[in-house]
Amino acid sequence: MTFGEKIFKYYQQINVPQDLPTGVEVLYPFDSTEVADLTRSFYMRYFNDKRPRTFLIGINPGRFGGGSTGIPFTDPKILEEKLQIPNTLDKRHELSSRFVYQMIDALGGPEKFYDSFYFTSVCPLGFVRDGKNLNYYDDKALEEALEEYMAGEMRKQLDFGGNEIAFSLGMGKNIKFLKEFNRRHNLFKEIRPLPHPRWIMQYRLKRLDEFIGVYRETLAPFMPDFHK
């Protein structure tokens, strides 16, 4: 099977975490026929080969990005306008998605970028509480309830073909958790931090070009044909 076929099969069969704290709801878009079609189109276009990828690990999907489309860091508007994959989903922009696709353009565009990288999250499914996005680390009981689930789901994804060095999208709580998580579960040789896209867009927008440059400088060496 190709990397893309493995991803699509994984998301169609993904387990939903159980026994979560009261009030926590799981974002699960994969029971939608449209989302299944969108994810198939995306992954078979950009991952239809057997090359390993470098993992870029976010926190967990949000309501308007991966929690809607099933594709990490890709909102419905980007999916249609940037990737030419039509959809009837609510065309809201998601801040992280806006940064990610500007960064992808700086690294040569989606075809070249996805040849080398795979976006995922510490937890592959997102959460909401009281209608608002909830990060896995925002509730200690949630974090503890998810530990083994997240380790098992990351191992399944590594079987697609993962490189030994990965990147945390988040230089605060996400990288702190990931380093300890990785030490306990021995998933990657090393996890390196990058600033989180949403943090950049929300708090450092005036320095957007600078942060795109940081990503470009950091990730380009992991793209063998970047300078060709």
Q: Can you tell me about this structure?
A:
The structure is a single chain. By secondary structure, the chain is of the alpha/beta class. The protein has one domain (3-222): Uracil-DNA glycosylase-like domain (Uracil-DNA Glycosylase, subunit E), CATH 3.40.470.10. The protein has 10 helices and 7 strands. The strands form 2 sheets. Strands 3-2-6-7 form a 4-stranded parallel beta sheet, covered by helices on one side. The protein has a 3-stranded antiparallel beta sheet with strand order 1-4-5. Helix 1 (3-12) packs antiparallel against helix 2 and helix 5 packs across helix 9 (197-203). It is globular and about 45 Å long. 38% of the residues are buried. InterPro entries: Phe_SMUG2-like, Uracil-DNA_glycosylase-like, Uracil-DNA_glycosylase-like_sf. This is DUF4918 family protein. Pfam families: UDG. Residues 46-213 form the Uracil-DNA glycosylase-like domain.
